[in-house]
């Protein structure tokens, strides 16, 4: 168990760091070849209405989305900072590890003002890939959905 | 030492996750049979005036408090998100592990607006229970005491 | 690797806890005998203009700075809370470990109001010292530079 938990720590740290650095290719490499990435408001999810704000159900879709972001971010005047809290292993089975981790994302503008952008919960299924773990399914449950510029920021 | 630190990580992750999910029975199970839970403003504590905002000095009292919360939360229109920072082991002795961890709690309302609710420091005494750890004493030192709805939110 | 990652967790937890407790002597002991501490706005750093807001390139300078802080903090009416996110090991070589960790600092005033003070990224070089790690170089990349009272708060 302890080795798994440390590997989860390491993966989540990479996840946040690579997003904040804008290293999107390396970030994509954290996902398994067959993967799914979705962002769903927590309220919808709890009500059984999993209408996703974002849904990429293949790696190719996720890559397309990142390409679009790169174009949009030329005009992007903020920087992001992900703070990811301590993860827990919710289940462990043949299909991989199910983990959860809370997160907060802050944005800073060009004047150097920083504000809270969003909070939520990652609910991931992770699969082994050699000695490391890769993301097979990432569900971002979003507490904050009243965000003006959601689509321009990977969560 | 390293095994202990990972077990502390795991316990704190469970603690925050179960509160945010509203899984209060499972949250109670993180406490030892004999336990204490208190919330004290940091300023009072530093001044040697440990007047608690909340004090439960038995498991039965803590269970009563949670029952009251469940009633109040029927009218509760916010959701919580705990972010718990990296813990440190301050002491290790026959009575258990003394640990500290900083935390921030965010609240989101039904419009999907999120704001910082409170920050503070957990100062816990943890005792072994099989392979896991349980909370024998949890002192929540609260930086933020100007909160309107404190009693409705477990910290 | 896993032992190193846990040691990094432990060091960062000490770092934030000791600052928030105001235990500056113990905090200084986390640094190696030869060390460097600097605070640079992220924007400047990314533009190749590493003009530091703070630069201490010896342990003696860092000690002097802490003495000055102690004097200033007699009139200091806020308390700090560091939340340090999961670290990643960016490189490991003969000169030590290169690590990164995101952070947020909150401040609370005497009325018990808490607000976000700053976010940023620690980029540290750590060197072994017995079983623990010490900080040989700490670069604080600051997202937030529009802060009125920066100099009074160690980051």
- Give the overall shape of chain A, derived from the CA principal axes: globular
Greatest interface (CB-CB under 8 A), with counts per chain? A-B, 28 and 27 residues
The proportion of residues in beta strands of chain A is 35-45%
Helix-strand string of chain A: HHEHEHEEEEE
Major β-sheet of chain A, in short?
Answer: 7 strands, mixed
How many strand units of chain A?
A: 7
Question: For the CA atoms, what is the radius of gyration of chain A?
Answer: 15 Å
Cα distance spanning the termini of chain A: 27 Å
Q: Could you report the average pLDDT of chain A, rounded to the nearest whole number?
A: 90
Helix content class of chain A: 25-40%
What are the segments of chain A in which pLDDT stays under 50 over at least 5 consecutive residues?
A: none
Structural class designation of chain A: alpha+beta
Explain what this protein looks like in three dimensions.
The structure is a homotrimer of 155-residue chains. Chain A is α+β, with helices and mostly antiparallel strands and 155 residues long. Chain A is 28% helix and 43% strand. The first copy, chain A, has helices at 2-21, 24-28, 42-46, 59-72, and strands at residues 31-41, 54-56, 79-84, 88-93, 96-108, 114-129, 132-142. In chain A, strands 1, 2, 3, 4, 5, 6 and 7 form a 7-stranded mixed β-sheet that branches. In chain A, a hairpin with a 2-residue loop joins strand 4 (88-93) and strand 5. The radius of gyration of chain A is 15 Å and the shape is globular. Chains in contact: A-B, A-C, B-C. The interface between A and C is medium-sized, with 27 and 28 residues.
